[in-house]
Amino acid sequence: MEVEENAIIPSPRGTQTWGLVLLEVELIWLWKNSWVSVR
Fold this sequence. Notes:
mainly alpha, 2 helices
């Protein structure tokens, strides 16, 4: 419920969570690219 509400209504908490998710995705992508390049 909270996730849906945040997604519908823009709020500082929503932006913070989205920022964290984007950072995690970027880190994963960098880790994957580095692992692939090393291998």
